[in-house]
Design a protein that fits this description.
The protein has three helices and no strands. It is mostly helical and 94 residues long. It starts with a helix and ends with a helix.
Length: 94
């Protein structure tokens, strides 16, 4: 084993450790989202957010600045989709 092999092995071990730490952190946050929205109240809130910001989030054609309003509403929907993604991330990671 050469010095180069030792350095490469050490770097690989550190990369694996770093990846595991990042994965644990992501999983911890995802579990927090899942616990928050797993309650009855959380389900009600999530359903309300989904209804208001995804399903009933249309941009009126007569809007003064339709592009701005559409982008704004897309951002609102994106946040709700982010929350749903975090909740489902627990199942994908474990």
């Amino acid at each position: 084993m050469s010095l180069f092999d030792f350095d490469t092995q050490k770097a690989q071990e550190e990369a694996v450790k770093s990846t595991q730490e990042k994965r644990e952190k992501v999983l911890k946050v995802a579990k927090a989202y899942a616990r928050c929205f797993a309650t009855d109240e959380g389900q009600v809130v999530l359903q309300d957010l989904t209804a208001n910001f995804i399903y009933n989030n249309d941009t009126a054609f007569e809007s003064q600045n339709i592009n701005y309003e559409a982008a704004y509403r897309n951002g609102e929907a994106g946040l709700v989709k982010f929350i749903i993604s975090k909740i489902s991330q627990v199942e994908r990671i474990q």
